[in-house]
Design brief:
Structural class: mainly alpha
Strand content: under 5%
Order of helices and strands: HHHHHHHHHHHHHHHHHHH
Low-confidence stretches: 202-206
Shape: globular
Number of strands: 0
Radius of gyration: 21 Å
Number of helices: 19
Length: 416
């Protein structure tokens, strides 16, 4: 029998891998020195880089799921290592938008998607008894990675229009590639006859998957589409908020962008960063809640808190209260932390672990639609000249999502 490590070692390695794979979400921070060097590149043109990254990330997750049916996760991690180093090498030498789109958008986006599915699909199988918790733990690494990497990047890379960012990109690419390559030697899937350790104390039996079904069958289920559009609605609201996080905070604190001091901008960055930090914490907490309270209660609690976060942001803008702003951003990040572990745990609970890689990738495609939430938020602000409309529309999206969550029913019998 092949020797394996303690399953928590796989979890730790998985968190490290996803923390670095989540680097692509730091694009807003990483693009600042590039924008300073190439002022002729518009904000919209640079923002398109992240849109391409998200699109290729989803493709990487999907095709990674298909590849995992034929190969071991180490192959995906090694492929991710190659794509990351190539992506950051091309990006570091970019003198045109096309090179940037190819390097950071296509290559790094695919690399992140491959690593994401390799870890989520493989490490998750070691924890059939803790699907919510392990999903939350792994996704915490991916979510908080952008905040940590962003802080490191800004600390070592001046935004003075100089070429320092090129060296930083190359160094980051090398580090990520090395970690991915090493992780490939350790991450393995458990054998079919492997069983989770029995609990030391007598406990209520954990809920097992209702059934094992393939992707085609899953797509025929009402529960699949109800859940998919729940994810679309919630994530659309999320993208609308994170894209406007800084300007909303500045309005709440009555800070004008053009006249803001360095200390004020640092304060804004710290407050906005609370969203990422508590989003990571929320992923662990809601993953644990999914195991303890079940699917429906977890989705309801997360949705209600998310809506409360929107209303608190509106209150902070109206009252110009920094204290309320801080609480609202903490609550918003924390509550949205319920979404990603719920998607992962829901996939395995409703449709099993056997076809998890491809089934999960389908639900992850919600990001392709939800990413337009930032564009929607921008148009709503342009139309009204106020953030109030954005926040109220978000509350409406969340309420609609909660209705879909309540409509989801588990199958009465296998195969139906």
């Amino acid at each position: 029998m092949k020797k394996t490590l303690n399953r928590w070692v796989y979890a730790i390695i998985g968190v490290i891998v996803l923390l670095l794979a989540g680097m692509v979400y730091s694009w807003t921070v990483m693009s600042s020195p590039i924008a300073a060097m190439y002022p002729e590149w518009t904000k919209a043109q640079l923002s398109l880089t992240f849109t391409i990254t998200m699109f290729c990330f989803c493709l990487g997750v999907f095709f990674g799921g298909l590849l995992l049916k034929k190969c071991q996760p180490k192959i995906l991690l090694w492929l991710s290592a190659v794509l990351f180093i190539l992506g950051f090498l091309v990006s570091s030498r970019a003198q045109s938008l096309l090179m940037l789109y190819l390097g950071f958008g296509i290559l790094a986006g695919l690399a992140s998607g491959f690593a994401y599915n390799a870890i989520m699909s493989s490490v998750g199988k070691w924890f059939p008894d803790k699907q919510g918790l392990i999903s939350g733990l792994l996704l915490m690494g991916y979510g908080i990675g952008s905040f940590i990497i962003g802080k490191i990047y800004t600390a070592v890379t001046p935004s003075d229009g100089g070429p320092a960012w090129r060296s930083t990109f190359l160094i980051f690419g090398i580090i990520v590639a090395i970690v991915m390559a090493i992780a490939g030697f350790f991450i393995v899937r458990p054998s079919d006859d492997w069983q989770a350790p029995a609990p030391k104390k007598a406990a209520k039996k954990k809920a097992e998957s209702y059934e094992e079904i393939n992707t085609i069958t899953m797509l025929k289920r009402p529960s699949c589409w109800l859940f998919f559009f729940w994810a679309v609605l919630i994530s659309t609201a999320w993208f609308g908020i994170v894209s406007q996080g800084s300007p909303m905070a500045m309005e709440a604190m009555q800070i004008q962008g053009g006249s803001a001091s360095a200390a004020q901008m640092s304060s804004i960055a710290t407050i906005v960063g609370l969203i990422s930090i508590f989003n990571g914490i929320g992923r662990i907490v809601f993953g644990w809640l999914f195991d303890k309270l079940g699917r429906l209660l977890t989705m309801i609690i997360g949705g209600v808190l998310f809506a409360c976060g929107m209303l608190l942001i509106l209150w902070s803008i109206k009252s110009h209260s920094t204290g309320i702003l801080v609480v609202s951003y903490i609550l918003t990040g924390f509550s949205f932390g319920s979404v990603t572990p719920t998607i992962s745990a829901f996939t395995s609970l409703f449709y099993g672990l056997k076809n998890y890689p491809t089934n999960y990738s389908i639900f992850n495609m919600n990001l392709l639609i939800a990413s337009f939430g930032s564009t929607l938020a921008g148009k709503l602000f342009d139309a009204s000249g106020s953030y109030a409309l954005i926040l109220l529309v978000n509350v409406g999206l969340i309420v609609a999502a909660l209705i879909l969550a309540i409509l989801i029913k588990k199958p009465k019998t296998a195969g139906k």
